[in-house]
Write a structure and sequence with these properties.
The chain is α/β, with parallel strands linked by helices and 394 residues long. It is 35% helix and 22% strand. The chain has 13 helices and 15 strands. The strands form 2 sheets. Strands 14-13-12-11-7-10-9-8-15 form a 9-stranded mixed sheet. It has a 6-stranded parallel sheet with strand order 3-2-1-4-5-6, sandwiched between helices. The protein is globular. The N and C termini lie far apart (55 Å). The mean pLDDT is 94. Bound molecules: nicotinamide-adenine-dinucleotide. The site of nicotinamide-adenine-dinucleotide has 25 residues, from helix 1. The site of nicotinamide-adenine-dinucleotide (NAD) has 25 residues, from helix 1.
Length: 394
């Protein structure tokens, strides 16, 4: 395909997720290329521009949108600036792939929905796990009713983000920084230190699985949550969050997320679904290393050997969620249909999906702060004036 026929994509924010997810996915797809990027951080900007030989390189997204002749935009800036970036890109009539969490306040979430409607443009929210072949296979199996009634879903997702401000780990971090490797920047540690993030790791990552539960076909009816701060002197938010949700089919959903499990930084992400006819288990590989997810199913005939049967995904483990998400987005932009959907029905997450996901995330924090359960009936009443962009002293 000639370059003149390719879709010209502009990136707003060119950090981690662009280096490991969107950049490689655009290249792998082959129908598009990164025509321009904008990022206020010169290190991230130059690193990306050099690797992908990007011609239009900008500090400010407005200059990029003004001067470049783009076909689409991918927004991968921190969530507190997503709304502004969506509004400015939408005003130029450009289709958008915007990262999750959509925003840190309901007001900004609504601004994103409104911008899409006002300018009549397509917005895909980056709930990329919907494109993970393993989750697509699980959704299919649940739709085929292989487990019968679902009783419980449990997700355990742990990282290891140690205290890098002191001790020998702190010294290593300082030395690395002297040699040009800034751990905070490299791993986007604003998630754990910047009050604008609106919450700790739960705020950043709970949206993935709250969305996946809905993708599996269930709605959330109620949340109850506990959080714990392990390093209150250096981090404004929780390090541990354990939320339990009641689902529309009567099942209980347990989401257990912490960043204090000693081990590899992105160490552990597993899930279990228990139903009356059996159980499903999955082990997610490290997304940044492009490892696929392993899914197993265990029913009555599995009991004698006590082993899961592999539920292989027919969609290919080499097709990572970032590749499939980008394929879907480029399909939308070009009005083509190259992504073979695993299951019928709604596919990519809409701004409305993302808004509901953010609402349940905020409700989880409110539940933890006030020691209350929040239900679907009073969800928006409870969280409308609830602000999380300040240190959480609960
Ligand atoms: N879908 C996923 O699996 C996934 C994975 C990682 C990150 N994310 C999301 O992607 C977003 C970015 O995360 P990251 O890990 O790449 O963080 P990062 O810090 O590595 O990158 C963010 C980049 O945005 C830039 N930026 C800040 N303000 C900006 C502005 N006003 N205009 C343009 N650029 C600006 C920063 O300089 C930085 O280079 C977040 O919303 C995050 O939650 C999603």
């Amino acid at each position: 395909m000639k370059q003149s026929e390719k879709t010209k994509i502009g990136l707003i924010g060119a950090g981690n997720i662009c280096r490991v997810g969107h950049g490689p996915a655009i290249t792998a797809d082959g129908r598009a290329y990164v025509a321009a990027i904008s990022d206020p951080d010169p290190y991230n900007r130059e690193l990306f521009a050099k690797k992908y030989k990007v011609k239009g390189v900008y500090e400010d997204h407005r200059a990029m949108l003004e001067r470049e002749d783009l076909d689409a935009v991918v927004i991968s800036s921190p969530p507190w600036v997503h709304a502004r970036h969506v509004e400015d890109s939408a005003a130029k009539g450009l289709p958008i792939l915007c990262e999750k969490p959509m925003a840190t306040t309901l007001e900004n979430g609504r601004a994103i929905i409104e911008a899409g409607k006002k300018h009549n443009i397509y917005i895909l929210m980056g709930h990329c796990k919907r494109f993970e072949p393993g989750h697509q296979r699980i959704r299919e199996l649940l739709m085929e009713n292989v487990l019968g009634r679902i009783f419980q879903i449990s997700i355990f997702w742990y990282f290891f983000i140690p205290n890098l401000s002191e001790g020998w780990l702190g010294n290593v971090a300082k030395k690395l920084k002297k040699h040009g490797f800034d751990v905070d920047r490299q791993f986007g540690f604003w998630r754990y230190s910047d009050v604008r993030a609106g919450g700790g790791d739960f705020f950043d990552h709970a949206p993935h699985y709250i969305d996946i539960i809905r993708f599996y076909g269930m709605e959330i009816e109620q949340v109850s949550c506990e959080t714990k701060r392990c390093y209150p002197d250096i981090r404004p938010f929780e390090d541990i969050a354990v939320a339990t949700f009641k689902l529309s089919n009567g099942a209980i959903f347990l989401y257990d997320k912490n960043v204090v499990r000693t081990g590899w930084p992105y160490g552990f992400e597993r899930g279990y679904i228990y139903g009356e006819k059996g159980k499903l288990a999955f082990k997610a590989g490290h997304a940044y290393q492009k490892r696929g997810m392993k899914v197993g199913i265990y029913r009555l005939p599995n009991i004698p050997l006590n082993l899961y049967t592999s539920a292989l995904s027919p969609y290919g483990t080499k097709n990572t969620m970032f590749y499939r998400q980008m394929k879907f987005f480029i399909d939308k932009v070009r009005d083509e249909h190259t992504l073979k959907n695993a299951v019928d029905g709604a596919w990519g997450a809409t701004p409305e999906d993302s808004y509901l996901t953010m609402a349940w995330t905020l409700a989880s924090y409110k539940s933890a702060r006030d020691g209350i359960k929040i239900t679907r009936d009073n969800l928006f009443k409870e969280i409308e004036d609830f602000q999380t962009c300040q240190p959480h002293d609960w």
